[in-house]
Amino acid sequence: MGSHILKISPFASSTPLIFNATPFLRFQAKRVVSICGHPKTQFRFSSSSSGFVPSSKRGFRGGVVAMAAPGSVHKSEEDWRAILSPEQFRILRQKGTEYPGTGEYDKFSAEGVYQCAGCGTPLYKSTTKFNSGCGWPAFFEGFPGAINRTPDPDGRRVEITCAACGGHLGHVFKGEGFPTPTDERHCVNSVSLKFTPANS
Ligand SMILES: [Zn+2]
């Protein structure tokens, strides 16, 4: 298992277009190329997970996992503006993207549950988080039914949203060659998430 510490070259680029996935990645899956253009990136599993234990066997204390029904959270734009920070509103409600390498949970590996920052619905367990080296939190799997997938209008990427409130999370990529149980990467904005420790 890779024990190298991730080395990310500085993000010198000033163009946000770096966020856009490009189809060529699909043809270089074996090279573990990240979306963000670090072809030699080494990745390692988050320290909280001893390999990839099936998430169903890693319960969390505290009963955090209370799922809101899909589509159950409805608020007007005005209401969302009132309860979200401007940055949360920009990303969750206007499908924005945080700058890579800056997010609170990018290099975060504590054990617990990541909930939707908009409505509190549990989305990911920390045991499904892995270090993709792309500059955003990456998960190989979400809670069943918690996340909706919608192809972008241009067909290049698949957007992921909170199934309960529709909040924008990021995008999901498949077949990149990461040695995870699903070979999927949920590339999620930290701003879209709220972490709750397992022992809280
Ligand atoms: Zn939500």
Structural description of this entry:
With 200 residues, this protein is mainly beta. It has a single domain (16-51, 66-197), classed as Metal Binding Protein, Guanine Nucleotide Exchange Factor, Chain A, CATH 2.170.150.20. It is 8% helix and 20% strand. It has two helices and nine strands, in the order H-H-E-E-E-E-E-E-E-E-E. The strands form two sheets. A six-stranded antiparallel β-sheet has the order 3-4-8-7-6-5. A three-stranded antiparallel β-sheet has the order 2-1-9, with no helix packed on it. The longest helix has 8 residues, at 86-93. It is globular. The two termini are 30 Å apart. It binds zinc ion. Zinc ion is lined by residues 73, 116, 118-119, 121, 162, 164-165, 167. Belongs to the MsrB Met sulfoxide reductase family. It is an enzyme of class 1 (oxidoreductase). This is Peptide-methionine (R)-S-oxide reductase. Residues 77-198 form the MsrB domain. InterPro entries: Met_Sox_Rdtase_MsrB, Met_Sox_Rdtase_MsrB_dom, Mss4-like_sf.
